[in-house]
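Researcher: Here's the sequence for the chain we discussed earlier.
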Amino acid sequence: MANNRNHTIDVMRAFLSWVVVVVHVLWMAGIQGETDQQMGASAVAGFIILSGFVITQLLVTKRETYGVFVFRRFMRLFPAFAICLAFALLIRPLTVGTIQSATNPLIEASENQFFWWHLATHACLMHGLIPAIWLPRGEFAFLIPGWSISLEFQLYLVAPLLLWWLARSGAKGLLLVLMPSALLVLPPIASKVAMIWSASGAFLPQRFIFFLIGALIYFFSTGGPYRPAMYRYWPGLVRLGEVSYSTYLVHYPVLALVNRFVPVHWSTIEKVAVLFTLGAPIILVSSFLLYRYVEQPGIKLGRYLSRDVKNLRLSSNSQALPGESLIHS
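Model: Thanks. This is the structure I predict for it:
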């Protein structure tokens, strides 16, 4: 366990990932209403705020080229995403038509009609970027939680450029970004954008305000007298936070597979109990295996492949090569 990890963020990620698990357990059991939708949306917003904080910290404290940063973050996301996507596709013949909801038949119909287009956009993590009027339900295809992974990757593509620009434009630049981002979450505007792009908000401008909140929290918490305390947490919670990305990805196909064998005539309480009792242990084991054998090797591979570029320095001084660091140049 890395000593330099922020365990508070780990614990928060653990909590948010299991909120999403609970929401999907309720959803598959037939409890589909405004409350569970708000719980899920709030958890994802929390993830984006944490990403805003962490990505801002990485960009400010590390000296990397834009290409190295994006490549390493891609390698952070894609390996586990690809495995969970493959798993979801493998079990798809068993799970199609087994989840009772108003939206699932529409998602499955789009998967059937645009199968290869969905697969291609998922392969480059751009499935949340394609307008819904071109590729219906594209952000939800095959692996429903994967919509926010596309959102996260869009953030990685934009964040270095944004912080580079803000470092030069100051408060005026921040206002120019903050105001339209805030307007896009207002219900009248958000609903119109959702009709064109994404009902879930998988198109980055729809959720950009949450990244800005996370970035501002970082700057205010580290730029003033306040310093975050290093609290001691139960190691189990920290470990759950470390594997939270895998938990977030793998839980849905696991629950969908368990749900396939739950009798339709069972009561909602019975379904919730069985889905969680059987699903939670499988999700936990799968999360730790993915983290150990997919996430960590992917991160190490990203570091290995980018190390030569990252280590380039002018021999005569300690300054970065031209274009090496968008923030520090």
